[in-house]
Design goal:
Structural class: alpha+beta
Strand content: 5-15%
Shape: elongated
Helix content: 40-55%
CATH architecture of the largest domain: Orthogonal Bundle
CATH class of the largest domain: Mainly Alpha
Strand order of the largest sheet: 2-3-4-5
Order of helices and strands: EEEEEEEHHHHHHHHHHH
Number of helices: 11
Number of domains: 3
Largest sheet: 4 strands, antiparallel
CATH topology of the largest domain: Cyclin A, domain 1
Radius of gyration: 24 Å
Distance between the termini: 43 Å
CATH superfamily of the largest domain: Cyclin-like
Length: 307
Amino acid sequence: MATRDIYTTAFDGDVQTTATDCPDCGGSVRTTDRETVCEDCGLILEDTQLDRGPDWVRRDEQGSKRRTGAPLTPTRHDRGLSTEIGYKRDANGNTLSSTKRRHLNRLRREQSRARWQSKAERNLAYGLSEIRRIVASLGLAQSIRNQACSLFRTAQSEQLCRGRSLEAVAAASVYATSRCNGLGRSRAEVTASARCDQNRLTNAYTVMNVELELPTQPVKATDWIPRLAAKLEVPDHVRRRALELAQQARERGVTIGCRPSGVAAGCLYLAAQRVGLCLSQQRIADIAGTSPTTLRSRRDDLLDITT
DNA sequence: ACGATTATTGCGTTCTT
DNA sequence: AAGAAAACAATAATCGT
């Protein structure tokens, strides 16, 4: 961590990976000073929202601390640099005279006009707040939110908002970030939290993907497994076995051309069966959004490579 | 609930014009 | 080269046990 130039608070510096597992999907858990988040499913486990001290410190290459302002954040349209003009009291806590107060009121009015310099800036602020809303609704991590916000900025500066609703671009930013991080959130899930229909989200996502050349990876079966396992409430070792199976299937090249949801369903079914846990094919298939037939078919493929 | 069989659909290839 | 057609694989529906 010393090599990376990161902003941390004065009290709680380093990012640590704890030994505990995500209770939801059993994945490994990463704890920062702000939140505890599962690396597999992207779910926030603890979000303290505690600002531990206003004393922001920046570590330079030598590791020594230097005072700076608060870290820049991509989630505010002005990157958190805006100035708020307060009411009632001055910097020393004394009340203000009426003339002084009128003066400040005028200043505040002018400043709030100046803050929204252009329509683009207003749109940006709206888009970012929309992203914050969607990310919170999906329970995703702060790092994902920041990535999505950065993506939105890029999309806007590349003129990708023209002819598209800001809601769609915002939702697409979240979905794209989820895809790039292999979080396994489906388009339908993001749409459910978004204020646009799925077609618009798809359209915005496709355009962003092409124009911005996002590092999108194909959805893998392993992306599905943590969340499926969580919904099925299977024990950890079953989830792990299923992940191993999916990994093997991927390496061996079977299941190429098969839908990842079907592969994941087959992996979980077989993994559960191997430890003597009886899960109904129908139930897994329903949760995975596939059919028992497909599940069986994938399971048979897995049987071919593991025996 | 599971397996087997059959129907459908999407897609890349091949054949035709 | 553009479109039509036979062919294949994956998935889904249905039936039988």
